[in-house]
């Protein structure tokens, strides 16, 4: 996709954003989008998007909420960035 469009491609796995320490996952989201914003146009691909935020029944749910909030905030300000994702879970609809 990025090769055809001739734009930089940034890839990440949703599990990279799932951390036990508050703020680490959100910081990684911001770093990913900051790198993409340095380009004129870019594509961001997040694999295993359903892993972002972790499990609801896990202790420490605030870390997942912070990561999801960071992701949603970054997505709002991406006029020149295309974002795509993938999940192997049938029920993961975002």
Give the tags.
alpha/beta, 17% strand, 36% helix, Rossmann fold, 3-stranded parallel β-sheet, 94 residues
Characterization of this structure:
The structure is a single chain. The chain has 94 residues and is an alpha/beta fold. The chain has a single domain, classed as 3-Layer(aba) Sandwich (Rossmann fold). Helix content is 36%, strand content 17%. The protein contains 3 helices and 3 strands; from the N terminus they run αβαβαβ. The chain has helices at residues 2-5, 24-37, 61-76, and strands at residues 9-13, 42-47, 81-85. It has a 3-stranded parallel β-sheet, with helices on one face. Helix 2 runs parallel beside helix 3. The longest helix has 16 residues, at 61-76. It is globular. It starts with a helix and ends in a 9-residue tail after the last strand. The mean pLDDT is 80.
Blueprint (SSEs and pairs):
Elements: H1 2-5, E1 9-13, H2 24-37, E2 42-47, H3 61-76, E3 81-85
Parallel strand pairs: 1-2, 2-3
Q: Roughly what fraction of the amino acids lie in strands?
A: 15-25%
Q: What structural class do helix, strand and pairing data support?
A: alpha/beta
Total of DSSP H or I helical runs spanning 4+ residues: 3
**Overall body shape:** globular
Query: How many structurally independent domains?
Result: 1
State the low-pLDDT regions, or none: none
Distance between the termini: 21 Å
CATH homology-level superfamily: P-loop containing nucleotide triphosphate hydrolases
Describe the strand arrangement of the main beta sheet, using strand numbers: 1-2-3
* Alpha carbon gyration radius: 13 Å
CATH architecture: 3-Layer(aba) Sandwich
The main pleated sheet reads as: 3 strands, parallel
CATH class, named Alpha Beta
